[in-house]
Amino acid sequence: MSLVLDPAAQDLLFREAHTANTFTDEPVTDEQVQAIYDLVKFGPTAFNQTPLRITLVRSTEARERLVQHMADGNKAKTSTAPLVAILSADNEFHEELPTLFPAFPQAKDLFFAERAAREGAAGMNAALQAAYFIIGIRAAGLAAGPMTGLDFEGVRKEFLDDDHTPLMVINIGKPGTDASYPRSPRRAYDEVVTTV
Question: What is the pLDDT of residues 35-47, one digit of tens each?
Answer without folding.
Answer: 999 999 999 999 9
